[in-house]
Write a structure and sequence with these properties.
CATH topology of chain A: MetI-like fold
Strand content of chain B: under 5%
Largest interface: A-B, 107 and 104 residues
Distance between the termini of chain B: 38 Å
Structural class of chain B: mainly alpha
Number of domains of chain A: 1
Distance between the termini of chain A: 42 Å
Number of strands of chain A: 0
Radius of gyration of chain A: 26 Å
Number of strands of chain B: 0
CATH class of chain A: Mainly Alpha
Helix content of chain A: 55-70%
Order of helices and strands of chain B: HHHHHHHHHHH
Radius of gyration of chain B: 23 Å
CATH class of chain B: Mainly Alpha
CATH superfamily of chain B: MetI-like
Strand content of chain A: under 5%
Shape of chain A: globular
CATH architecture of chain A: Orthogonal Bundle
Oligomer: heterodimer
């Protein structure tokens, strides 16, 4: 008969015991890692090969080619491509700034006002982000057109005469920035909310007790402590928008044309130039990778890497 | 004194929150209104109620074909991504191995690549290997895109489960597969389901990557993008937009609520 000693039962069990060395780890990682190496990393290597003409497109096998850095040289000496890149960076920065400026107060309200239904309200805020991207762009196309919802509403109410619609609404840089900001605001509220929600509220009380005003407490306590969320939010907008080509092609016209459109056009059926396109793509990837590496410790998923 | 917010501050922020929600939902509401408007052009004044745009899209074979293709692509790619994601998550949470940081960075890296770059890289890759573009190449790309999302959903859930449960199963003679099937899988099921839904909706809505590797069978976003060039198809597209948006809102909100409820219940069992 076994007797359970109460002392042994009460002894605290360490929650995570040391795991034995496990031979199935390669079995678990094999498939996902192989998938990404083959279908994610390899294709990028191919882009590198095309960019130096080691591979040649659109007709591949047959002729042999000399490796050349000509396309890279041309790229760095071309005011057109670099100018377009700079324009996209500026547009993307404007979008990110607008988005963070709109998302921060909202996240602040949800996290710190003590409202009871903050998770319900958060879901209300985020839900539009989870519906179709393309369809939300479509909605703005319908609204902003010269004979669209907004202009026709103005004609109808007599606020503007039918001969003078507001013409700069659609197919402009303004339209691209508006639509991109519209798309990303809900998503960016999330990391900012998380960082505001998780910091120790007693720090604020302490600041108040020590005589700081609300504004001082915000600038010296709340804002610095929520910076990880702000930076994560900024990255989450900047990275996809700087390479954006779908929204500008739908609502941007010529003045809203972005770097991503140039890449896409260099691979389209009109006048393809895969070598130059590869250079442009790798340059964008390099900039984004550097930015991510520099700011990655602020990203929310760092726990996964160390978990 | 409430150091975070004054009374007026709270009022101002509440108004701001309200106006932002209006801004976010107004375009969707406008589409809803004009989907029932009896006119080719979405303009004011409204010209009467009709459901013919809904009838029209329900009987449009191209549109229905595109929806079916997208459903197929999304189903296959979400199951694939979740399968790979569960394997990777177990390794990341439960195993120790050299190079973990580097491998998890690789597994999450598709999150931060601009889609235009990934799209053209797949195009060049398949072209160089002589693989024709088709529904299959779209699925391949969508699995890559969805995989990190599935890991981000499953890893935290797996981390909450006490290893002792798995060890107890092993002590009682269950092999690894049985332990997974009877212990781990039921406990992570809510996360697996929400990972499936996220991967499904990601794929169903994905245009940028698909536009480079799609073959002759258009997915729904590809069809939609093409249809936007023809004003005559606009009302029909608006009607379909309303249906897709409302369905995805219901699915996503329902899934989130369901996951919370299920995890609370499982949490009670584990405690």
């Amino acid at each position: 008969m076994t007797v359970h000693s109460p002392a042994a039962e009460a002894a605290p069990q360490p929650k995570r015991r040391r795991l034995r060395v496990d031979l199935t780890t390669p079995g678990l990682l094999g498939l996902p890692v192989t998938w990404l190496v083959v279908f994610f990393l390899c294709p990028l290597v191919f882009v590198g090969a095309y960019s130096i003409d080691a591979l040649h497109g659109p007709s591949l096998f047959g002729e042999t080619h000399k490796v050349t850095l000509a396309a890279w040289h041309d790229f760095f000496h071309s005011s057109v491509y670099l100018g377009l890149f700079w324009k996209s960076v500026k547009m993307s920065l404007v979008v990110s700034a607008i988005v963070v400026a709109c998302a921060y107060p909202v996240a602040y309200y949800l996290a710190l006002s003590g409202t009871k239904r903050k998770y319900v309200l958060l879901l209300v805020l985020i839900a539009p982000f989870l519906t179709s991207y393309l369809l939300r762009v479509l909605a703005w196309k319908v609204i902003l057109g010269n004979r669209g919802v907004l202009n026709s509403f103005l004609f109808w109410t007599g606020a503007r005469s039918r001969d003078h619609p507001i013409t700069q609404l659609l197919y402009s840089r303004f339209a691209v920035i508006l639509v991109l900001a519209y798309i990303w605001i809900p998503f960016v509220a999330l990391p900012i909310f998380v960082s505001l929600e998780s910091f120790d509220r007693r720090l604020l009380e302490a600041a108040g007790d020590l005589g700081s005003s609300r504004w001082q407490a915000f600038v010296r306590v709340t804002l610095p402590l929520s910076m990880p969320g702000v930076i994560a939010g900024f990255l989450f907008v900047f990275i996809p928008t700087v390479g954006e080509f779908v929204t500008p092609s739908l609502v941007g016209g010529t003045s809203g044309y972005m770097y991503g459109n140039q890449i896409s056009d260099l691979f389209s059926t009109g006048f393809p130039d895969w070598q130059t396109g590869s250079v442009l793509a790798l340059f964008l990837l390099g900039v984004v990778a550097l930015l991510t590496a520099a700011l990655t410790r602020f990203l929310q998923f760092r726990d996964v890497a160390t978990g | 004194m409430d150091v975070a917010l004054s009374k007026n501050g709270r009022r101002v922020l509440r108004v701001f929150f309200g106006s932002l929600v209006v801004f976010l939902y107004a375009p969707i509401a406008i589409l809803l209104i004009f989907s029932f408007n009896d006119s080719q052009l979405p303009t004011f004044p409204l010209s009467g109620f009709t459901t013919r745009w809904y009838h029209q899209f329900l009987t449009n074979p191209d549109l229905r074909g595109a929806l079916a293709t997208s459903a197929f692509v999304a189903a296959i790619s979400s199951v694939g991504a979740v399968f790979l994601g569960v394997l990777a998550s177990i390794a990341l949470v439960r195993r120790r191995f050299a190079g973990k940081a580097a491998l998890s960075a690789l597994l999450l890296s598709p999150l931060v690549i601009p889609y235009v770059v990934f799209g053209i890289s797949l195009l060049l890759f398949f072209h160089a290997l002589g693989i024709p573009r088709s529904v299959v190449t779209v699925v391949v790309g969508h699995v890559v895109i969805s995989l990190p999302y599935t890991i981000l959903v499953i890893v935290p859930r797996l981390g909450q489960i006490d290893v002792a449960l798995e060890e107890a199963a092993a002590d009682l003679g269950a092999n690894r597969i049985a332990t997974f099937r009877w212990i781990v899988l039921p406990l992570i099921l809510p996360a697996v389901v929400s990972a499936l839904l996220i991967a499904f909706t990601t794929s169903f809505d994905e245009y940028a990557v698909a536009s480079f590797v799609v073959g002759t069978r258009a997915t729904f976003p590809i069809y939609l993008y093409g249809a936007l060039r023809f004003p005559s198809r606009l009302p029909e597209v608006i009607a379909v937009a309303v249906v897709v948006m409302i369905v995805s809102l219901i699915v996503v909100v329902g899934a989130e609520v369901g996951r919370r409820v299920a995890e609370r219940r499982l949490g009670a069992v584990e405690a």
